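Bit of a strange request maybe. I'm writing a small parser for structure token strings and I need a real example to test against, not something I typed by hand. Could someone generate the tokens for this chain?
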Amino acid sequence: MTPARESGRVHIHEVVTRDGFQMERVFVPTEHKIELIDQLSSTGVAKIEVTSFTSPKAIPSLADAEAVMRGIRREPGVVYAALVPNVRGCERALACEVDEINLVMSASESHNQANLRMSRAQSIAQFAPIVQTARGSRAVINASLSTAFGCPFEGALPETTILEMVEQFAALGIPRVTLCDTVGMANPQQVERLCREVSSRWPDLEVTAHFHNTRGMGLANVLAALQAGIIRFDASLGGLGGCPYAPGASGNICTEDLVHMLGEMGYATGVDLSALIEAARALPELVGHAVPGYVLKAGPSSRVHPLPEHSK
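Reply from user aminoacidic:
Good idea to test on real output. This should exercise your parser:
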């Protein structure tokens, strides 16, 4: 029996309205974002990353962060998170009473420069005042480490580099860490080894895995992380998302595909798959193109079809 089955629920973190929509060329109207988040809140997901409190010039698609966060209906038991890049963003997020502040930096120096235009040391230096700003509020800090499983510019990174970064997060008193496969370079063997090492070194740290399906290994990597004891996973409805500074990176693993797989294998997620699929049906019209998710197209494997007439 795997650790996840022994401990009960696998926690699904939905990131479509932040990680997914930030990559879209069309602006999804504020009222449609709110409607989608409210719909997702009722599906049973454990967390929703609602938006990003960054400069509207940097990410125009999320320029309505305050309006969205203040407009959603809060479902008891659901964590409502937001990404913040600096102290000002943290202050804006706290004013909207977010439950979680998500900080982001890269494990690789080159990707951090491309994505954030600063060194890793500068990013870590920025984390400390944000942590201090959030202290005493309702918000918990999560640090997301991009390119934890490989960088598009540097290739594979030494495992010691990842562990050193996690050590710095822990030293700042950050209780939650997300290991991100930003460009879909991870393989199951690597995932299990790194996730097991992080979990064993910092047993009190709440670790989330964030995979992309760039090379078709996203769900296989979820299974490897489960074997290592990880029970929290980011996913994006319809499989939307990516990284503007990660050449070739396609979307996140698809939420409905993930929930379907886990359910078929006997894992409890607390998520209503039918409600997720219904929510995903609205995405192509919202973003103006088809989405990569499989279960939305094929339906769950429990679906059976009538025999063709010639076979009767």
